[in-house]
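Homework help thread (please don't just give me the answer)

Our assignment gives two proteins as sequence + structure token strings and asks us to describe the second one. The first is just a warm-up. Here they are:
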Amino acid sequence: MKVAVALLGMLSCAAAFPWPYPAQFDHSNCTIKADSPTIVAKNSGSALLNSAISRYTAIIAKERFWPPADYKLKKPETTGTLGKLLVEVATDSEDLNMETDESYTLDIPAGGDATLKANTVYGAMRGLETFSQLLATIDGQRVVRGTPLHIEDRPALAHRGISLDTARNYYPVSDLKRTLDAMSYNKMNVLHWHVVDAQSWPIESKTYPELQTNGAYSVDMRYSYKDVGDIIQYGRERGIRIIPEFDIPGHTFIVGQTLPKIMSCLDKQPGWDKYAAEPPSGQLNIAKPEASEFAIELINEYSKLFTDDVFHLGGDEVNRNCWAEDPDVIEYISSHANATVETLLADFYTQVHNAVAKQKKIGMSWEETLFHSEYAPPKDTLIQAWIDEQSIPKTVAKGYRSIASPASSYYLDCGHGAWLSNLDGNSWCDPFKSWVHVYNFDPWANVTDPEQQKLIVGAEVALWSEQSDTVTLDKYLWPRAAAMAEVAWSSKTDSTGHVRTTQEVVQRLHDQRFRMVGRGIGAEPLQPLWCARNPGHCLLP
């Protein structure tokens, strides 16, 4: 253990180690000055690349990050000076989807110009983030340590995201943009925007304007078309896709505030728990053609507003009691041979997934659509596995692509107790998921078949907002989302097959947390500052 502690201390002095860790990182022991590095694009007309260069130029100009473990170091001796960072991108294509190449190579010599090469502008963005993290300010001198260094990097998973619920409590546009900034610092690339739910409908609709009028908490808690466009562009400039979720047919009480005739079991009280996972109850009435028509019209509208090629249809936590006691459903079943609640639900899913396909989008849904209904989704559907960790191997065993979001490890809202005001106890998903617990989850666990492993294409942490809003957003997300981000980018093992442990990575995560705080992200601390300054001294014996 003493050797390990000494090694951690040496590493903190010898080089900077980025978060997430690169796929290949070769470094030496020279330290060079990096007073005011200039970033220059070579032969590129990409507006996105130019925007990224301007952004990182501003970040670097302002940032004076002094790693906490190096707080006693004096101004280091240097062997050279960093010149420019020359950025070269093979193509000016700005297409952003799950197939986008985010790989890059970065070379920083022991003096002179550094080079960053990527196949796409988005790979260049990832390389710029790594470059910014290699800079450290020691006793007033900005340096790059560990030169000459060579990095070859690429993500393990194509989809690395955060699912954020903006319906139970509202987050202003500035919160969403700050979250996108923080995601870019951790090489995350998907904001799964759970924009509406039973409690509110904050987003503008041109087709049904009353949904927002009647469903937003207030005129100050709304998202306009312009807001959505701004968020999509802001994400794109950081290599982050915005995937919308309009959860149907469940979680739709708020639709009933405008269209009650297409609803079932609206706000059943006091026995809401018979009809819904949480109050208020209410689901689209799957026996009524008007309900399916409404859902299809929403898909048609929002498929145009949201430009990503994936559209999330929800499909989780539908309650059969809600429909079994609905007069319209009862009448339909009695007058149609072989009709049941399950056949009605499968028919509804068929219609909405077909509508998504007609819009040339890829459907995404929660795992219940696959496992808890008679419907067989199209094989290109992305299945978000959340109920337990075994849902991931079960999904890929059926030949579907899986987005890993197990509540047991990746639900960041858990751990604050029940939110029902007459219940003194735990919430359904307690306890709190520490960064250690998040990091220790392996999305590839229990999947040994190489072809099935390829079907695990993504991972998402989720922040449901029953007990979160603008006040708590940053600290609930960060740095725990960063822990997932490294696993999704770097995988659980290094190039030698060694499984990374939290003991080994904690110092880098300390650095990342302090760096994020310096960039305006309210990330909560991992440990006392003393631990960050004394690597290896805060371990359970």
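The one we have to describe:
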Amino acid sequence: MASGQKLADLKGDTELITTFAVKPDGSHLVSASRSMQLVVWDLRTFKIERTFKARDSHILAMDIDATSTLVATGLADGTVNVWDIDRGYCTHNFKGHGAMITSVRFHPGTENLCLVSASGDGDIRVWDLKQRKCTSVLKSHVSAVRAIDFDESSETMVTAGRDSVINVWNWTRKSLIRTIPVYESIEAAGVLRIDAAAVFNSQKGRVVYSGGEKGIVRLWDLDSGEELFTQAKDRNAKHTFVDVMYLPQSGNLCAVTNDQNLLFYSVTAQLKRVRQIVGYNEEIIDLAYIGNEHKHLAVATNTEQLRIYNTDNLNCELAYGHKDIILTLDVHSSGAIVATGSKDNTVCIWAINMKAPVNHRVTCVAVAVGHTKAVGAVAMAQGSDALFMVTGSEDRTVKVWDLEPLRAIFEDPSHAATLVGDAEPIRLHTRYTFQAHEKDINSVRIAPGNKIFVTGSQDRTAKVWDVETGQPLGTLQGHRRGVWNVAISPADRVAATASSDRMIKLWSLSDFECLKTFEGHTSSVLCIEFVAGGLQLLSTGSDGLIKLWNIKDGECVLTLDKHEGKIWTLAKQQSEEFMATGGTDS
């Protein structure tokens, strides 16, 4: 947990995992899958220790007792079972619920061994394991109960569910003390330790946390029902919480989002996000190295968040700002400014300082609003003398944006968070707009010197434009299908284009004639990049291949086959020691 590095993959029986729990002593993990098998994993060796059949219904809820001896399982047929973990047999089989089990929890007391279970109809049952029977049925919830927890005295029980309420119960009398309306469907709730909760000024130091459909953590006074704190949601964030776990040793709450990320919040720091672990990436659409040392990657996946990965340990920072999928990104020559174009028709400008505190590492400093369809191409002028940005869109237009209002940030990106503060991002204005192509614009590149730029389109052409006037200088025509990507040589007045016709073409930017054609990919060529000072060219394609070409003789000198699907993007370090590629295989 200290580094966020993955320790192991626990490969089961290929069936979907429905629930799991870890022994309090940390020695073993118990998992259940749709194969209706219970699997016990040794967390020292990360190997399966034993497997046993878990009745004839799917397991939906699980908890392990304080002695790390028993595991309780709640089934889809309304049955509750208790198992001896080390010996692998069922010790108790309880029936009585009229709906599927949504939560189970052992009472923390060891004198009277009790288990609490809750179901989709809102009923809560208390089971005495010594007497082997149900001793109480608690009725107050009217929908699925998703959380059961106890305070430190074990005399107060808290339950919460999708009926948008938190109920507080007296454990001894099995009676309802109060109902706290929260006005959102709750997926997780629990009680904080008194020492950690002291900063929130509750009456007796007893604080309940909750999380659910709003995607924020909220804190409540257990004794008065008053809301003590509401977390501010990240701008344009759409996630909901499917679970929130309290980690008392670190003093953090770990929220699990519906888009498969883990967000850690410090209880003692007003629920500020202190770290995050990113789950499934889906497709990687675009990426680029950032920072002076190129130790981080800015990554666009088919989600709304910009992701910043540390290439040493793959720790990831999520940045919220867009309302829809990010389609493209570009990095300024400083390595600290990133522009992202999105399906929400906007472009965001981000200042990045990975040495800053967690909540200030990635700051959205400006937004460009004006395109009427998705922005699929973006490029920023390099250097600090010319501050402008070019964008291309599915609306077939090119817009050139003035970045002068951001000069202070471009000159000192490390202080962007201080310069912006809590203010809204700056709204950028265009210098000019024109229709550039007959179909979607897929790529934009600005030539060294910031005097001309090149656009590539699905209309099978690439075009060269004058930055100052926006006038066309020439058309690169010869592909039989759409142009996916363009690149400009750092050494010569030469551009390259990649197309769905499986070809790469090299063009003169002086007379706009085709100089050479590279053939070798078996499917669409999606991304290209000049390397070795313009003497060689890297390409990626829908065939899952990466190819390295000599410019002089057009020979393919290297082919890499490591992807299992389309390779949408590639990025190289400035030193060209490493390159990164991303595609549909995430």
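TA reply:
I won't write it for you, but here's a hint about the kind of observation we're looking for: Helices lie at 194-197, 407-411, 416-420.
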